[in-house]
Amino acid sequence: MSGPGRIGDGEGATLRFTFDGVPLRARPGDTLAAALLASGIGLVARSFKYHRPRGIMAAGVEEPNALVTVGEGGRTEPNTRATDVFVYDGLVARSQNRWPSLRLDLGAINGLAAPFFAAGFYYKTFFGPPARWMLYEKLIRRAAGLGKAPTAADPDRYEHRAAFCDVLVVGGGPAGLAAAAAAEGRVMLVEQDRILGGNIFASPTFVPSAVGGPAARGAPGVSTSLDTNGDGVAGLPSSVRVLTRTTATGVWDHGFVTLVQRLVEPGEMPLPGQPVQRLWHVRPDRIVLATGAIERPLTFAGNDRPGVMLSQAVLGYIERFGVLPGRRVVIATNNDDAYRTAEAVAAAGGEVVAILDSRDATPETRFPVFARAVAVATRGRRHHLATVEAEIDGVRQHFAADLLAMSGGFTPVVDLHSQAGGKLDWHADIQAFVPGASLQTIASVGAAAGEVPPIAAATANLPDPKHSFVDFQNDVTAADIDLAWAEGYRSVEHLKRYTTLGMATDQGKTSNMAALSRLAGAAGVDIPQAGLTTFRAPFTPVTLGALAGADGGGHAAPRRRLALHDRHQALAPIWQPLGYWHRPRAYPRAGETLHDAAIREARAVRTTAGIVDVSTLAKFAVSGPDAAAFLEMVCATGVAKLGVGRGRYTVMLREDGMVMDDGTVWRLGEARWLLTSSTGGADRMEAHLSYVHRVLAPHLRVSVVAQQEHFAGIALAGPLAADILTGLTGEIPPTHMGFAEASIAGVRVLILAASYSGERAFEVYVPGFEAGPVWDALDRATRARGGFPYGLEALEFLRIEKGHIVIGAEADGRTTPHDLRLERMLRKAGGYVGAQALARPASSAPDRMQLVGLEAAEAIPEGAMLIAATGAPVEGHVTSAAGRVLGESGIALGLLSGGRARIGARLIASTPTRGRHVAVTVTDPLFYDPEGARYRD
Amino acid sequence: MTRYSAFALLKAGLTGQRGWDRAWRDPAPKTHYEVIVIGGGGHGLATAYYLAKVHGIRRVAVLEKGWIGGGNTGRNTTIVRSNYRQPALHSLFDFALGLWEGMSDELNYNVMFSPRGALFLGHSDADMTALAQRGDALCCDGIAAELLTARQVHALVPLLDMSPDARFPIHGGLIQRRGGTARHDAVAWSYARAADGLGVDIIQNCEVTGITQSGGRVTGVETSRGNIGAGRVGICVAGNSGPVAGLAGIKLPIEAQTLQAFVTEAVKPMIDTVIMSQSLHCYISQSDKGGIVLGGDPDQFPSYAQRGLPPRVERAAAEAIALVPALSRLRMVRCWAGTTDMSFDGSPIISPLPVDGLYLNGGWCYGGFKATPGSGFVYAHLLATDASHPLAAPFGLDRFAAGATIDEAGVGFMPQLR
Amino acid sequence: MMRIDCPHCGPRAQAEFAYERTLDSIVTIDMPADEAVARLYARTNPRGLDDELWRHGFGCRQWIVLRRNRVTHEIVGVAAFDPAIHL
User: Fold this and answer.
1) What dotted CATH number matches A458-542?
2) Global confidence as pTM
């Protein structure tokens, strides 16, 4: 009997799962890898490039070969390490990257062509026009990739959580447990495995020391029988918060740590309401890294064959899972640790055929042991190891074996230390980098700190570098490294990028050191001189779902609702987004298009009346003895001379002189002002006002309160508006650019007489929670006179006719007040934000983009370019387009080079993307009631 | 320089990959060069190539403080396009796009330029109008761009969430079919090899620590590998523009800012086009190897740390899943960050500096990769002739003092708003 | 994600704050035009310490000055913005 299998009678295998459709059994606690080995399955995958048969090499997250797809439908998780998923009842697993089957994969033809597929081969061919490259690319892309992504949506939930603690211990092995037990204050311990104890199972003789505490073995209260998925771990104080199946993925600025916690296994269905994964944001005061060490493979031809495994992994499969991965075992090592594996194999009923020790002197052992011995090649039968070819003191010898347990030493896991900016020191006795000086309050303990067995350095000679794998997952061989060196890709980063070494999903966990060793050999330097690549988060791959948390899908951005949302919704409007806000665009009747509705609504405003929700305008209460002086810093127009009860239009500039926002300013009282500005610029204006106040003019006695969300606003506009208002308030309405306080439907409101539409109009402001009855009253009264609510589309028609600019359209962040014909409003003495930059020469160049009106016999396309004739250079564009409300022609506003001097010019508004070219005439940007007779008193 | 070809590959395969020579030499610095380019990224190496190839100036050194292509060229998200709204920008980028189309053949190195389309999504009527405006500006200037309906977008990217209730509903898009992706590292290597083949010295592990001047004119540089004289010095160091210009006592309208990107594990082909959005900062594409490459907002504060804020990656993931729900179970395998040189109008600065013989090419913000060949070409022109190439003329440093900025986003001088 | 010790609120996560500009780029209303424009468009942008103006937007909403290393992100000083000191 040969190959992997369960030790003993296989009792207790109560979990059912399938692999490539074959029903199998597992014991609770088995990883998928352990269960597959227990079932005698050694062939699990096909490699990325050459489609070589691959099995299980490791027992943990460092596994480079055994990638499978787990789960079904929207829960499908491709590229899952079989060593990093615990079997649950009903688990469905499939192998990847093979066709038609794992055993008979046509992709293996790539392996035959391997001599031509050396590293970087694709840079040296496939020339020709890009269209031809895209044909090659189609084939390459299909061959590339590993698993297949799901197409169905993910049905499960993800969560984010925050935590604070005094000490975060990363790693629940012996060193981590000791550190957590000894730590003071609020302690958190995270472990990526399902159980604590780590390599306790694998290292009965190896005792790491702990930070400031006793050694793990024999430490008071630290037991070795640990199996937990939550609190109350035997041996740890109950105050220690333990998270298993939780990986620390990154350490960021100032010790900020991200963790990913798996509440269910990949592909497993969660309980109702339970998230499948949780992303933690943790801010510990101190971090202890007990992240252990990862065993290194040895580099020799055929080291990627199923049946070749890491020595401690073999030990772990025997002692933790009761699985013997092979019956006739060869051990290849450069350190003492692998001898324990030999003992375990024998105790489990296997035969240790030989121990190949590359050192000159070997420890005492009862097994056949050879010094100065290395494995140089393997041969297989039926996709599994059959023979190990060794070189012992220069002489070749063969061993029949179905398992080769290799140990090339141990690499302390220093990723998180390094991410935090910590330096690394080289320890030659273990041929590894260990944590050196750290910038933050981070300490490393145990194997992570370098407490691993010493090894003999690797020899440089490889008889067959072409089949000696260094990066298993990306199929990078020692020969590829040699080639990169020969071609001059010698910096470790160039080597990595040219060969793709270390860039697979395992991020080089089992390949980095072997690669550096080969690079150093080629360069004739020691490994530390060869360099080291940067460690990048995440330590192990993290699903995008976990990163998104609850903010994925429909919650990816908030929706801001109007206080009057329900009133609008009852009228079935077309909703329009602006940033996060949703506002009614129009209220179409049956059979009406958007355009029909907008024209009807706008006409009502011009002929009777209408009401529109203007709640989203930014509003700021500015008060204090120096409020006027403050406003004159922010606003480029006159402000201070406004009398109480009066308001005016105003414009605010950016420091570079461009128009940033516009609005109105009102003097509500001696030292009480109201500033309004655009919806889209509300947050920007709030920050700007704060800057001007607190940074530029902190001596001014003024208070600024942002009130955008507090007040709802309803504008009532039209020739009948004054009448309607009087009917509701019982009072004479305020004069143009005046205001008043009044009551509507028993609610106190502020009424500002400002006209955006060009008709007599009143903006009614009321706290949002009281707005409903006010809207109802205005709505009833307006409908009674033949008017109705109007939306933003109608508002666009109305304001374009009046030449009112809009922030984001005409004022696009690149226009000065002069460009927009607002220069006469500017205070000549300056003293406002932006005045200094306006003095720059280009600010008044005659060919600048300047505001113009445009008129045509048909609708003018918004966004179209303004050109003299087809093929002529672009001279401007249409910023906002509509039509005459009470007419037929198309009108628009635009920005035109030197436009102010070109009234009467004939141009074409050209939109090739929409297939229209409209003849337009340049006009004054004011199409309706130029004297303002409609709204003035 | 051995010529690369399928035949050469075949021969090499049969002879155990012998016979390839070094892609570029590792020369010691000479004592003097006609032109020194500080910065061995894609732009600097392209500049050196065009200096030699187009202007016949071969006594050129590219000084790189680390390994060539280690900055933007080694960490960008590989998108190539020219569909900018502002004429000065789309003209320069489109010139670059034309060079991309012939780059592999010209340099005899496959940079895998793949014109698979650069698609901007529109999520509202306002977005679609903005996209139409951008498209019209491009078409009227002779650069092809097409407006797509929602159905056409769906046909291109079947995995987009097309439901009307989606948080970011798809109304349509604007596509530049000539845009796409390229193998970023290969751009540095191909220009390096070609420039080296023309006699340019590429000197790595050589940090410039001083810029020497005499009588208001540059005379050379001090480096970690000794002093080197030069007739002209062109700074081309992207995120390090501030400190290097500071060596000559010059302050710039540039601030360094971190931008992150990340990639998932490799999967079989699922997204064929480059997806960007008119109103979201999230962008998505799939590399040839199969990983989904994603990016989002910059970190919005000054930094050289090349280490980013986790919330930016989380936000990008959230937006990406909202756009393409099938991404949820794919795993980010690596995230990284680079230092972008944010200019104060979002446009590059290709200009002489106030010291004679000293020049700057920088301020590309997060858009430099797509410009690489064009940037190198026009910068070589400036370094060779001391006059701006017409395409680079709008991008002088003096535009800020004059008020003639070119601001694609219209947000002004604060880099963190860009 | 830096930890910033707001003088008013204590230690808070960076996500609550927004960077504004460097102290030496603040332009006051009374500056002559040339000087104002020069300050607006000139930054040292050092690979090292600089004095920066930040706002605690999701907290006290006040302005603070950080003396911060742009390479390591080490914060060596935090103070409430005070024009007498910082302008």
Assistant:
1) 1.10.10
2) 0.95
* Structural contact between residues A728 and A778, judged by C-beta atoms closer than 8 angstroms: yes
At the topology level, CATH places domain A618-706 in: Alpha-Beta Plaits (3.30.70)
Q: Which residue in chain C is spatially nearest to B302 when comparing CA positions?
A: C70
A538 at B interface, C-beta within 8 A: yes
Report CA-CA distances (Å) from B393 to A174, A560, B127, B383, B386.
66, 45, 31, 13, 12
User: pLDDT band at residue A1, thresholds of 50, 70 and 90?
Assistant: low
Check C41 against B401: CB less than 8 A apart.
yes
Domain ranges of chain B: 27-109+184-254+344-417
**C62/A254 Cβ within 8 A:** no
Hey, where are the domains in chain C? 3-86
**C55 confidence band (pLDDT: 50, 70, 90):** very high
List A583's β-bridge partners, or say none: A576
CATH for B27-109+184-254+344-417 (3.40.50.150, 3.30.70.3270, 3.50.50.60, 1.10.260.40): 3.50.50.60
The H-or-E segment that residue A110 falls in is helix A109-112
Which pair of structure tokens corresponds to residue A433? 């980098």
Which residues of C lie closer than 8 Å to A, measured between beta carbons?
Answer: 1-3, 13-14, 18, 20, 26-33, 36-37, 40, 53, 55, 57, 61-63, 72-74, 81, 83
Pairing of strands B180-181, A67-70: unpaired
- Shortest Cα distance from B285 to chain A (angstroms)? 13
Q: What topology is assigned to A565-616+710-798 in CATH?
A: Gyrase A; domain 2 (3.30.1360)
Tell me, yes or no, if A684 comes closer than 8 A to chain C by beta carbon.
Answer: no
Q: How confident is the model at residue A554 (pLDDT cuts 50, 70, 90)?
A: confident
Tens-place pLDDT, residues A386-435: 999 999 999 999 999 999 999 999 999 999 999 998 999 999 999 999 99
Tell me what pLDDT residue A440 has.
64
CA distance A897 to B73: 38
Out of 3.60.20.30, 3.90.1150.10, 3.40.50.261, 3.50.50.60, select the CATH number for domain A296-405: 3.50.50.60
Instruction: Output Rg (C-alpha) for chain A, integer angstroms.
Output: 37
For residue A233, pLDDT beyond 70: no
Digit-coded pLDDT (tens) for A568-624: 999 999 999 988 999 999 999 999 999 999 999 999 999 999 999 999 999 999 999
Residue among C1, C38, C50 whose CB faces B309 most closely:
C1
Six-digit token string for B268: 């079989």
DSSP string, A863-927: TPEEESSTTSPEEEEEEEEEE-TTSSSEEEEEEEETGGG-TT-EEEEEETTTTEEEEEEEE-S--
**Residue of B241, B304, B342 to mutate when probing chain C, most C C-beta within 10 A:** B304
ipTM: 0.99
Mean pLDDT of A514-531: 93
Q: Which fold has domain C3-86?
A: Folate-binding fold (3.30.2270)
B240 within 8 A of B234, measured Cβ to Cβ: no
Quick one: pLDDT at residue A213? 27
CATH superfamily for domain A845-937: Aminomethyltransferase beta-barrel domains (2.40.30.110)
Chain C closest-CA separation from residue B345 CA (Å)? 10
What would you report as the CA-atom Rg of chain B, rounded to the nearest whole angstrom?
Answer: 21
Contact list, C74 vs chain B (CB under 8 Å): none
- Residue A205 is predicted with a pLDDT of 43
pLDDT of residue A652: 98
- Domain assignments of chain A as residue spans, ordered by start: 296-405, 458-542, 565-616+710-798, 618-706, 845-937
CA pseudo-torsion sign A267, A269, A275, A280:
negative
Nearest to C45 among B256, B310, B401 (CB): B256
Q: Which chains touch A (3 or more CB pairs under 8 A)?
A: B, C
